Amino acid sequence: MQSITITEILKRKHFEKAEVVAGTSGLHKNVKWVHVVEVIAIKKLLNGHELILTTGLGWKENKALFKSFLTQLIESNATGLCIEVSSHTSFIPQDIIDLANEHQFPIILFHEEVPFVQITQDIHSLLINHQYRLISDLENYSQNLNKKLLEVNNHKEILVFFQTFLNVQVVAFFDEETILLPELPTKERWNLIEKIKNNQQSSFKYMASQSVQVLENHFAELVILTEDREINEFDLLILDRTTTALAQHFLRDLYVEEKRRLEETEWMIDWLDGLHNNVEIKEHLSYLEPGLKLNGGVVCACKWQSTDHSTATTLDKTYFKLLFRTIFEQQGFYVFSIEVKHHIIFILGNQRPLKSWKQRVEEAFKRFEKVDYNQKLKAANISFGIGKFVKQLNEIHSSYKSAKETLLFQKMLTKDGQSYFYEDLHMYRIMSLLNKHSDLQEIVLEYLQPVIDYDNKFNGKLVETLKTYLACNGSKQETAKKLFVVRQTMYHRIEKLETLLGKDFMSSEKRLAIEFMLLAYEYLNTTERYTKALPDL
């Protein structure tokens, strides 16, 4: 629905004998309000799109003041100027007419006395009634659009409905296609697309655009163009409603896709358990996505635990999985997801070169951390573990196993050594391997039992002192400072450590072994504690 223009106002009763003496090419401009003005300093009093009524009292016959007044109106984006010819203003100088023509700024003359009060009352009533119609039309459009959403199978149907309603040129940019409504000849089409993509907005008389956002990600760009009228607030509201409807349509498709993927749960569990060979995997993937080719893959294990002791709803987890999948697919991964007890397991099928997989995962996590989650997701404490990358899809079970270990290690890592990736957890991987193939606890006690027993008996804090002393490279002063103890206490503890471990405990090889055993001691304690807290995956 078009706004009230000067052309329409000229048809009103009090404008029957009015004369347009300048700016006829601007008669299509929108009018939002009418002001009666008799002062010269007007610029700060206007908001734009006003039609000004005046007798010229402010400038009388002073051409310089008249020009200054007109310039202020143009700069303030006023719509037009109506002047009652009287003793104050008897004629319009040619350079004033030229200035108005240059800026397509209409100047309208009343050659007879007119009632400004009645004019403002009439036009304001027209504007208010028009506003009510706009609100009604907007509501009708929204209702019909919502009905359409329940029926349409393709986003183009929404665009056709949108274009038909506004009757403007519509251009919709999607990742893999560009839609023009109405369609243009090939040469015009590519010329128009090129100008929009290169941000050549000056090439178009009137243009507006809005992004279609789904789960904080850009899905499309919707552009409207028109040559014969201004794009008004109503057009922008319709544009906003339409982009929202498109977002809902895409979100619905994503939810349907996610539901379909959930039905693959049983097959996925067998895949994670290593029960499918490469031939079976390729056959199943081609059924899911014809032409899908994966160049290896990696598993991401995710633990979902609410910090407010409430259970996350299915909707929250679905939103989280959609968000995760959207971000990681943009980094070149085909994402499979499955819920296993309190965990969400993602299989990231690689679709790009192998050498960049880790860099792309890191980039995805950076984006994921910046996303503005909904309130329920913000309340969730989410941990991630990325397993080792495997080149063969039938080896995904080994990536899954290492992802679970990495998730377990997250609670043990220092801030400096924190990483989502199994391949970054060098010492912990060695300890895990030793623990599986030998009695790691026995080895640890062989080195540290005297110190551990002393602490248990006397609460001597020797393990803490030993760890800090080694981290400070044998500096007693720095160790005392970090432990907040006096130097004399520090000397006494070092002497006790020498008694329990031997005076050579700081020699290079023995020191290296003790440092490793301290890390293993912490690993064993943490593993025991968190294995009880984490259900089996």
Structure commentary:
The model is unreliable at 530-537 (pLDDT under 50). The chain has helices at 6-9, 63-75, 94-102, 116-151, 155-166, 186-197, 233-262, 265-272, 278-288, 314-329, 357-370, 375-378, 396-409, 426-437, 440-458, 462-471, 476-483, 487-501, 508-533, and strands at 19-22, 33-36, 50-54, 80-84, 107-110, 169-174, 178-181, 206-214, 217-226, 297-306, 333-340, 343-350, 380-386. Helix content is 51%, strand content 16%. The longest helix is centred in the N-terminal third of the chain and has 36 residues, at 116-151. It is built from 19 helices and 13 strands. With 537 residues, it is an alpha+beta fold. The protein starts with 5 loop residues before the first helix and ends with a helix. The protein has 4 domains: 6-125, Udp-n-acetylmuramoylalanyl-d-glutamate--2,6- Diaminopimelate Ligase, Chain: A, domain 1, CATH 3.40.1390; 152-259, Beta-Lactamase; 264-405, 2-Layer Sandwich (Alpha-Beta Plaits), CATH 3.30.70; 437-533, no CATH class. InterPro entries: CdaR-like_regulators, PucR_C-HTH_dom, PucR_C-HTH_sf, PucR_dom. This is Putative regulatory protein. Residues 462-520 form the PucR C-terminal helix-turn-helix domain. Residues 8-127 form the Purine catabolism PurC-like domain.
Secondary-structure map:
Layout: H1 6-9, E1 19-22, E2 33-36, E3 50-54, H2 63-75, E4 80-84, H3 94-102, E5 107-110, H4 116-151, H5 155-166, E6 169-174, E7 178-181, H6 186-197, E8 206-214, E9 217-226, H7 233-262, H8 265-272, H9 278-288, E10 297-306, H10 314-329, E11 333-340, E12 343-350, H11 357-370, H12 375-378, E13 380-386, H13 396-409, H14 426-437, H15 440-458, H16 462-471, H17 476-483, H18 487-501, H19 508-533
Parallel strand pairs: 2-3, 3-4, 4-5
Antiparallel strand pairs: 1-5, 6-7, 6-9, 8-9, 10-12, 10-13, 11-12
Helix pairs in contact: 4-5, 4-7, 5-7, 10-11, 15-19, 16-17, 17-18
